[in-house]
Write a structure and sequence with these properties.
The chain is of the alpha+beta class. The chain has a 5-stranded mixed beta sheet with strand order 18-19-17-16-20, covered by helices on one side. A 5-stranded antiparallel beta sheet has the order 24-23-22-21-25. Strands 12-13-15-14 form a 4-stranded antiparallel beta sheet.
């Protein structure tokens, strides 16, 4: 590291690093770059703040965290051998520790320590390892709290408020020589607990019940409550210092005694190796790809069906945002899926930018203009669009039905479903699946165990409505959603998904395309007023058939049923009976059944026979008998009709309500314009204004790229040069304390800068910018004129011009200083 003496502070340790190592620190902890530190000292200070240290600890794997926890309970500083001993034990194994565990720990500890050093959580040479103070405060035990290792405070910490007389009593009971010096007494007691032989003799003399008490406390928590008159075993432990009082009713097992009972180990089960992801089944990769492709096509069709159902304006949006429970149930019924699955499809369409609010006063959900472009893409490209959006989305549909921090229900498409950890967990789960052999379906429990090992501190709840292990919940949802979306097939990762992760959407679409059946241009009409689509249909055919018939069943073959209502729907969309006959004859591989032809002709004959318009509204018909029949029908009472003419009736309801009311009575009216023309209702006309897909909520600062890292490291180095450069001490410009700005008069500043420009030497200056921010810089003046100095700024690594009146002072650099 280029150091001749051990570093005394974290700043000195960071200053001794090379540029690549500093860039690695900033890459691992990007929060340190907001804003870019002015020098190494600022970087070290920021790296020691509690928020930054907590974030860094949350990104450690379990063994690196266990190493940090062991350092937190060791003396500061601690040699490498002490740290290794806390993880492997002192050889007095109790059977829980296998022989090969020590070798595994010895092999893994250098890597874990390198991670802690890289992230500036540990610094110093192997002989003097130091955990940063903030991390020690978080991980080390205090008199009130045990550490994550389950160890309590040291003897010195636990006896800090104990009277000298009580210390003497403990020493006498333990068979130690009396001393009037409290420090010596504490030292003697701690030495007893760390002496294997003497501690063994003391425990051999303890009652069996006392050893049972110690067994309950040894692995934590180390605190226990006692009564004013404790039992003899507890009294014996308290008298011999094995239980030290924390308060009048609380005692603690001191750390030194606990470590002896643990055979020197800080953790019950060190975990140097990540748990393996085990398989529950190994399937044929081709079968996996086929199953995933079939599910991918179903996913695309389901999203399209959802958005078609909302073509004319979807469900209203709650005042607090999102779908109501009733609307979610209605959507689930329409899609023939459970409500959680319906919530997933709605959230997926929203995350992909295909669904949004229409922004109207009566706010509703509707497809976006991007949906029309998406619907024109081949099926494989539509799938890659959905899968890519799902991978990056922070929207978490699995939370629907839960509660937020205020106890309010979380609704589908609501504003409280973003979880910043979701993309990282999804990518990590898929990476674990990709590491398995093709066709291997993993055991979900082993996947969760691996994720917990990789981020043991990241499972904490982010809101009061979540359970503790949020990452595990997201991982389970990821496995379920992957199967729904066609990311996996029969539990194993599909080949096209591997390509999506490694190469991108284009490669994934190319691999998926051969597995998706070609769209068909025909259906099979049957005599029972149904049509069978033996596969996916071409888009124009599918659109027309969905308007002319209702979907009765889905699957490998879709069954459509023709009804009077569905035929009327096609006629309302502007089709004529002749158009429908021609369409069916063209696209059916079987003859058009006579009942279907009769159905179309019968509905078409009655369609438009009644005309609805706006007066308040009216009905007109050339057949007076039909109007008489309507007036005589009791169901027309709510429409409040009255005759205006032999062929016209007026109503007191709006045209839409009148149209719907007469249809419910069994008629087939058509709406007309003010000019008397039939109004054609076309599906899919309602779209939101142009909307972009929701931006995922970031989890902390983004990881900086190489360019930013390089610039940041140069700026920190230059700022550190300016802050630590050695200055000459002259009567005109006396040296100041490091970090403070130089102070000289205007005349002294001008003379010194002019002289430096003539000799080409470098100067140390204090500078205040237009915003009033002060900084110190090392410059090499080139030209001085007009109240400005043009110089090469070593701090910024560029040529700049500075107003002389903003320079607080100058100082020459020492002869051996370098900028």
């Amino acid at each position: 590291m280029g150091m001749t003496t051990p570093p005394r502070t974290l700043a000195e340790a960071l200053r001794a690093r090379d540029d690549e190592s500093l860039a690695g620190l900033l890459r691992a902890r990007p929060d340190l770059l907001s804003p870019v530190p002015g020098d190494i000292t600022q970087l070290a200070t920021r790296a020691g703040t509690r928020a930054s240290v907590v974030r860094a600890l949350e990104h450690l794997d379990r063994f690196a965290l266990q190493a940090a926890e062991a350092l937190a309970v060791a003396a500061d500083p601690a040699p490498y051998e002490t740290l290794l001993g806390l993880l492997t034990g002192d050889g007095r194994d109790d059977g829980e520790h296998r022989d090969d565990a020590g070798a595994a720990i010895s092999d893994a500890l250098p890597g874990a320590l390198a991670t802690l050093r890289e992230q500036a959580l540990v610094w110093g040479e192997d002989e003097r390892l130091r955990l940063v103070r903030t991390a020690r405060e978080i991980l080390a035990p205090s008199p009130q709290h045990a550490s994550p290792t389950g160890l309590g405070p040291t003897v010195a910490e636990a006896t800090s408020g104990m009277s000298p007389g009580r210390l003497q009593e403990i020493l006498a009971a333990a068979g130690l020589p009396a001393t009037h010096d409290p420090v010596s007494a504490v030292t003697a007691l701690a030495a007893l607990f760390t002496d294997r032989t003497r501690m063994g003799e003391l425990l051999d003399s303890a009652p069996a019940e006392a050893l049972s008490v110690l067994d309950r406390l040894v692995w934590g928590p180390p605190y226990g409550e006692v009564t004013p008159n404790p039992t003899p075993p507890v009294k014996w432990l308290r008298d011999h210092g094995l239980l030290l009082p924390v308060s009048t009713r609380t005692v603690v097992l001191p750390r030194e005694a606990a470590l002896h009972l643990r055979a020197g180990r800080a953790h019950r089960v060190p975990e140097p190796r990540p748990p393996a992801v085990e398989a529950v089944a190994v399937r044929d990769p081709q079968a996996v790809d086929s199953a995933a492709a079939g599910q991918a096509l179903l996913a695309v069709n389901t999203v399209e069906e959802l958005l078609k159902n909302w073509n004319g304006g979807g469900p209203p949006i709650l005042r607090a945002g999102g779908l109501s429970v009733r609307e979610l149930k209605r959507t689930a019924t329409a899609l023939e899926v459970p409500e959680p699955v319906a919530a997933f499809w709605a959230e997926l369409a929203f995350a992909a930018g295909l669904l949004a609010s229409d922004g109207e006063a009566d706010e509703r959900y509707a497809p976006t203009p991007a949906y029309d472009d998406w619907a024109e893409l081949p099926a494989q490209d539509r799938w890659t669009h959905l899968a890519t959006a799902w991978l990056a989305a922070t929207r978490t549909s699995g939370l629907v039905g839960g509660q937020d921090a205020k106890g309010r229900a979380l609704s589908a498409l609501g504003p409280e479903l973003d979880r910043s950890a979701a993309p990282e967990v999804r990518h990590r789960v898929l990476a674990l699946l990709a590491a398995l052999a093709p066709g291997t379906a993993p055991d979900p429990e082993t996947v969760l165990a691996r994720l917990r090992w990789e981020r043991p501190l990241r499972g904490a709840s982010v809101s009061a409505g979540d359970t503790i292990d949020l990452r595990s919940r997201i991982a389970l949802w990821t496995l379920n959603e992957s199967e729904l979306l066609g990311i996996t097939g029969r539990g194993a990762l599909a080949t096209h998904t591997r390509a999506l992760i490694d190469a991108g959407p284009a490669e994934a679409a190319a691999l998926l395309a051969p597995l998706i059946p070609e769209p068909l241009d025909h259906v099979l009409l049957q005599a029972d007023l149904t049509a069978v689509a033996p596969g996916p249909l071409e888009r124009p055919l599918a659109d027309m058939l969905s308007a002319l018939a209702d979907i009765e069943s889905k699957g490998g073959a879709t069954v459509y049923r023709f009804t009077p209502g569905s035929v009327r729907r096609a006629l309302d969309a502007g089709q004529s009976a002749a158009d429908l006959h021609a369409f069916l004859a063209t696209h059916s591989r079987t003859p058009v059944p006579q009942p279907l032809s009769y159905l179309i002709d019968d509905v078409a004959r009655r369609h438009g026979h009644l005309r609805i318009g706006a007066a308040s509204s009216y009905v007109r018909c050339d057949d007076e008998a039909v109007l008489n029949e309507i007036l005589a029908d009791k169901r027309s009472v709510t429409l409040r009709l009255r005759r205006l003419a032999p062929t016209a009736l007026a109503a007191q309801v709006d045209p839409a309500s009148l149209l719907e009311g007469l249809r419910e009575m069994g008629y087939a009216p058509a709406a007309e314009s003010a000019e008397g023309d039939v109004l054609i209702t076309r599906a899919g006309a309602r779209r939101t204004p142009p909307r972009t897909a929701p931006v995922p909520v970031p989890e902390g600062p983004p990881v900086p790229d190489a360019t930013l890292l390089g610039a940041a490291v140069r700026a920190i180095r230059a700022g550190d040069t300016a802050a630590t450069v050695v200055r000459k001490d002259t009567p005109e410009a006396p040296a100041t304390a490091p970090g403070s700005l130089p102070r000289t008069t205007s005349a002294e500043t001008l003379a010194t800068v002019q002289a430096a420009a003539m000799t080409g030497s470098a100067l140390w200056i204090g500078y205040v910018n237009a915003d009033g921010a002060a900084s110190q810089r090392v410059i090499a003046p080139v030209r001085v004129e007009g109240g400005f100095v043009t110089a090469y700024d070593h701090t910024a690594d560029e040529v700049r011009t500075y107003p002389l009146h903003r320079i607080t002072g100058v100082a020459e650099l020492a002869d051996d200083a370098t900028a």
